[in-house]
Design a protein that fits this description.
Layout (H helix, E strand, L loop, with lengths): L10 H24 L4 H6 L10 H28 L10 E4 L5 E6 L14 E9 L5 E5 L3 E7 L6 E5 L2 E3 L2 E6 L3 E7 L8 E10 L3 E4 L6 E5 L4 E8 L2 E6 L2 E6 L3 E5 L4
Antiparallel strand pairs: 1-4, 2-3, 3-9, 4-8, 5-6, 5-9, 7-8, 10-13, 10-16, 11-12, 13-14, 14-15
Length: about 260
């Protein structure tokens, strides 16, 4: 059986179709390969925008440089923020044991707040905030006694603070954020002076001591009401929960009587 001749393509037409198909496949393959070319290869093939020195390439290079400069500035800014300023305080104030995220600032008397509850013999105060690791030591060149304003409370709660001497400085240790206040030294008198019927409310958490500026026996907590037996310089002799001892006269309110 013979096929009708009009069903078959002429040989020249068939060759032309095959050539076009081959060209199409080759083009697709070339395009796929072209997508993986480097900028240098693209420039060689005539795409001048990928050549070094082309306007768009220069703009892209400038943009990259600007982005890098901005990132560097941001890094420097973060590093500065993370650098503690505690070593940069006034001469005569030394803070040690801090971290890179611990910050310090000298505070004026007006900046302390609670002015009505603070004595008038404040020498200097240092505010410490940020991350405060245990054992941060704050030292003052002047001699005196210390108190701590606890920043966990609003208004800040005043606490008596144990002071000690190191290298001729008055020092204290903290483990939380707040303000360390240095007061003028209070020298005890030679003897107690008895008072009449006197009762006070303490306006800070105070150490109960065996003698003025002596060994700590207990803590007389904030707002405790205690009877006063005698005065000794800037100290009260009081009784608290069955114990007799001395507390500083700096933080109190008189509830009744003549307290000297």
């Amino acid at each position: 059986m013979k096929l009708k001749s009009h069903w078959l393509l002429p040989i020249p037409a068939l060759r032309c179709c095959l050539a076009l198909a081959l060209l199409f496949i080759t083009s697709i393959s070339a395009l796929a390969q072209f997508d993986t070319l480097s900028d240098e290869d693209r420039c060689f093939l005539g795409q001048t925008e990928f050549c070094p020195g082309a306007p768009e390439a220069e703009e892209e290079t400038e943009e990259k440089a600007e982005n890098q400069e901005s990132a560097e500035k941001e890094t420097v800014s973060v590093e500065r923020e993370l650098r503690s300023n505690c070593p940069d305080l006034l001469a005569g104030v030394v803070v040690s044991g801090y971290s890179a995220q611990t910050f310090c600032q000298i505070v004026s008397v007006a900046g302390l707040g609670r002015i009505d509850e603070l004595p008038d013999d404040i020498i200097i105060a240092v505010d410490v905030w940020g991350f405060v690791p245990p054992g941060v030591e704050v030292c003052f060149l002047q001699n005196g006694s210390l108190a701590f304003l606890d920043a966990d409370y609003s208004p800040r709660e005043l606490r008596d603070m144990e002071a000690y001497q190191r290298d001729g400085m008055t020092c204290g240790t903290i483990n939380k954020h707040g303000t360390v206040v240095l007061f003028a030294a209070s020298q005890p008198s030679s003897e107690d002076v008895a008072v009449g019927d006197c009762q006070i409310k303490v306006t800070g958490s105070l150490y109960l001591r065996a003698e003025p500026a002596g060994e700590i026996l207990d803590i007389v907590w904030l707002h405790s009401e205690v009877p006063v037996l005698a005065t000794n310089g800037k100290w009260f002799k009081v009784t608290f929960e069955g114990q007799t001892g001395y507390v500083t006269r700096r933080y109190h309110r008189v509830l009744r009587g003549n307290c000297g």
